[in-house]
Structures are given as structure tokens and as C-alpha cells.
Design brief:
The protein has about 325 residues and is an alpha/beta fold. It is about 45% helix and about 15% strand.
Length: about 325
């Protein structure tokens, strides 16, 4: 704990120094060399849609790339420099980026720093048995539209002369989100007895609520919680009781816990398959279909559908 505290203090000192340097030079926010508005986000689920909506007006960079776990992420010196140099900063909030909250709070004095998740009404947020808010709101397409809309509004305030263009681009993007929502309704074809989504951690609550799937995560809402033998044991019992045909690994989570579930189930004579890899806290590589928000979501729908329908006789 002492080492963590010292590291955290060092990061805050570095960020404060960068902030004061920018203020003393009179340049707390600079356009990119090509005149684009410089935006930094934590997760790619915010960055990629904003780049599409902002088009040639913006240059959007995400701090966290493929396979990065935002729950455990600590900002680097380079990240602090990027945040200090950006004109707008967007993060999910709802305690997803728990180790970066202090930095964001400090930077709010210098520039717009927005937690897009706060745009979602509290009554629509999921909570665990301890009352902790589930931050994985991008898995509900309607909620994520609210979050992205909050980011676009902030961008419109920053560049009012391009407000109409941004509004038009947003509506075009949201139409694609709506198309994906319709496409995802095929999950309703999965028989009730197979509608169990078993994953490494509890990131798919909103996905499950939207698509009427029972979600079982070996870990809690955050990956900083430990997986015990009892978690694996209880998951195996669910698989046995409901004859769950497949379980899933996540791109940003070590797959050892899910493999332990598969092996444990097979030792008890239950043949459960590895249904494939899902994207939860991180998207795929840039330049791939899974490296886009819509493509990531579509991949998950397809993977879950094929794996759970594969157990239908």
C-alpha cells in the first residue's frame, strides 16, 4: 500500500507540474499541427465512436489499447503528458478507471474533463449486492448512446461553429447503433434453458439485461477481486444444473480461471465447451472490425449466439 501511495503522489506531482507549465506559457490547450481538436479518452469504446462522429475535425487518442484492463490501469508519465496536452478529455467514470480519478479531478481546472457515464440516469445503472455501480455501460446500446451524446455535446460547446456537422454525424452513427440493436435481437432465439452467459468477470450485466441472458461472472464487477475455489465450484454447479453448453474467455482477462471451470466440469462428467473469446473491457486491435465499437459488439453477439445455439439439439 505504501509503494502504491508513493507512486500515486508522484503521478499527481508530475501532472501538476505539467499543468503549471502549460498555464505559465499561456498554452493550456493546443490544436494538433493540422488544426484538429486534440481529444484524449481512457477506453477505445469512447475514442473510436468519437473519431467517427468528429471526422476531420478531431484527433482522438485512447490511452488504453487492446487487452488492457481499465480496472487495474495506472497512468504512465506519457499518459499524463497526453492528458495535459489534450483540449478535451473523456473517460467512462462510474469507478471504471479507479486509479486515475485523482488525475482527472485535478485536470478539470484546466480543461473540459468529462465522465461520460455520469450522463446515464442512476435508476438505469446496475449495482452488485454490495451496492457498487456496474461501470460497463457500453454493453447496453441505448445507454452508450446517452454517454456518447454527452461527449458530443461537450465537443459542440468547444467548437460551436461545427455544431450542426457534429449533430448530423452523430445521428448517422446512432442510426448504425440502432441497426446493430435490431441485428442483436437474434439472441432471443437461444432457448431459455441455454441462456446462461458464463465469463471471467461480471462485465456483461448490461448486455444480459438488454438481451435477457443470465450472466455469471467468476469475478465481481472489478478485476481487482480475487477468484476463489468457491467461485469456480459454484460456477460448475450452475453449468451442471442448467446444462450450459459453453463458457467464454475475455480478451483483457487471464483465461486460466475459465479453463479451470472447464476442466473441473469435465472431471465431473460434464462436457462444456470454450465458446470463444469475447471483448469486454477492451476492444480489438485498431484496423480490425473488432477494433471498432460496433464491430466489437457484433463479434460478441455472433460468438455468444453460435456457442449457445450450438448446444441446441
Amino acid at each position: 500500500m505504501e509503494c502504491f501511495s508513493k507512486g500515486w503522489i508522484l503521478i499527481l506531482i508530475l501532472s501538476l507540474g505539467l499543468f503549471l507549465t502549460a498555464c505559465s506559457s499561456g498554452e493550456s490547450a493546443n490544436h494538433a499541427s493540422d488544426g484538429k481538436i486534440k481529444i484524449v479518452t481512457t477506453i477505445a469504446q469512447i475514442a473510436e465512436p468519437l473519431q467517427v462522429i468528429g471526422g476531420d475535425l478531431v484527433e482522438v487518442n485512447s490511452l488504453m489499447g487492446p487487452s488492457v484492463d481499465p480496472h487495474l490501469y495506472n497512468a504512465t508519465h506519457g499518459d499524463i503528458t497526453k492528458i495535459a496536452d489534450a483540449e478535451l478529455v473523456f473517460y467512462n467514470g462510474l469507478n471504471l478507471e479507479a486509479n486515475m480519478v485523482g488525475i482527472f479531478e485535478e485536470m478539470k481546472a484546466a480543461k473540459p474533463v468529462v465522465a461520460v457515464g455520469e450522463a446515464v440516469p442512476e435508476e438505469l445503472l446496475l449495482k452488485d449486492e454490495k451496492g457498487s455501480i456496474d461501470p460497463h455501460i457500453w454493453f447496453d446500446l441505448e445507454l452508450w448512446k446517452l454517454a456518447l451524446d454527452e461527449a458530443v455535446k461537450e465537443l459542440q460547446k468547444y467548437a460551436p461553429e461545427r455544431s450542426d456537422v457534429l449533430a448530423k454525424n452523430k445521428e448517422a452513427y446512432f442510426a448504425k447503433v440502432d441497426d446493430l440493436s435490431e441485428e442483436s435481437k437474434k439472441l432471443s432465439e437461444i432457448p431459455v434453458e441455454h441462456r446462461y452467459l458464463v465469463t471471467a468477470h461480471d462485465a456483461f450485466g448490461y448486455f444480459g439485461r438488454m438481451h435477457d441472458l443470465e450472466v455469471i461472472g467468476l469475478q465481481g464487477l472489478s478485476t481487482d477481486s480475487e477468484i476463489g475455489v468457491s467461485n469456480i465450484r459454484s460456477t460448475i454447479e450452475i453449468i451442471k444444473q442448467y446444462n450450459v453448453p459453453a463458457v467464454f474467455v475475455e480478451s483483457s482477462i487471464n483465461e486460466s480461471s475459465i479453463k479451470a471451470v472447464i476442466e473441473g466440469a469435465r472431471e465431473e462428467g460434464v462436457d462444456v465447451e470454450l465458446g470463444g473469446q469475447l471483448y469486454s473491457d477492451a476492444m480489438g486491435k485498431a484496423g480490425t472490425e473488432e477494433g471498432t465499437y460496433l464491430g466489437m459488439y457484433r463479434h460478441n453477439v455472433k460468438t455468444i449466439y453460435e456457442a449457445l445455439m450450438g448446444g441446441v439439439n
